[in-house]
Amino acid sequence: MIRMMICKNCGGEFPDTQVKCPYCGTMNKKGAYRDFRLKISAVIDRLLGMKTEAYESVSRMILTSILRSIVMIALCIALAFVCARMTNVNYYNDSRYDKERLEDINWENENIQKLNEAYENHDFETIRKLYYENSSIVSNWEHYASFELLYQYDKLMKKDALTDYDMTDVMYFLYYPEYFIYRYGMSDSEKEEYEENRKNLIEKVENDGYAEEKLAEIYQKCRDSYGYLSYTDVQKALEEVKNG
């Protein structure tokens, strides 16, 4: 409830909450004191509000810093784990490679003489057995390309009658020996041996009734059509040769 007071100077009546008399401007101590207290309270409240905001701001900064630190630590741990795993994997792979390489060296030292002796004696079964034991070593052996061609040549020459399947191998041997030796090349001496064997095989198939020129024509026709010898087309072409 608002109380009224009388100005001691002019006798004017006004609320006691006012700092001065509205009529003559005389200071009202009671109103001035009350106004002073309200301003002080407002300042205190403001300061307290600023303190709360500062505290909350600092708290947020501290919390953010803690979270960032936790994330950085987690990332460092994860990175260290990955590096450790990679190091272990590389070490494992290197160790396994070294072990396999050592085994290959030992195997080659133990069997290279067997390979050479089997090659000189045309013991192809021994070579193939050793190939199945360690294909990586045997396929890089100096006589591997020649062995593959000799093996095919020997197999074809030993047959009394060549089937249509055999004739497919015959045409590969005569016109595309790389089919058997893949990417491995032949030395000059091996090429000479191959050429001699090629002549002997041509003689055999001609004695069986297949003209070499006709076989060359069939081979080229099939290669032009498919890029390889299609057994169905080869069989059909050979039937025409037999009946023609």
On the 0 to 100 scale, the average pLDDT is 80
Radius of gyration: 52 Å
Spatial arrangement of strands, main beta sheet = 1-2
Going by helix content, strand content and strand pairing, the class is: mainly alpha
Q: Specify the number of helices.
A: 9
Shape: rod-shaped
Main sheet attributes: strand count, strand direction, barrel closure: 2 strands, antiparallel
As a percent range, the share of helical residues equals over 70%
How would you classify the quaternary structure?
single chain
Q: Can you write the helix and strand succession as a string? A: EEHHHHHHHHH
Which spans have pLDDT < 50 for at least 5 consecutive residues?
A: none
The count of β-strands is 2
- What portion of the residues fall into strands of 2 or more residues? under 5%
First CA to last CA: what distance?
135 Å
Give the tags:
244 residues, two-stranded antiparallel ribbon
SSE blueprint:
Layout: E1 4-6, E2 13-15, H1 29-120, H2 124-133, H3 135-138, H4 144-157, H5 164-175, H6 178-181, H7 188-207, H8 212-226, H9 231-243
Helix pairs in contact: 1-2, 4-5, 4-7, 5-9, 8-9
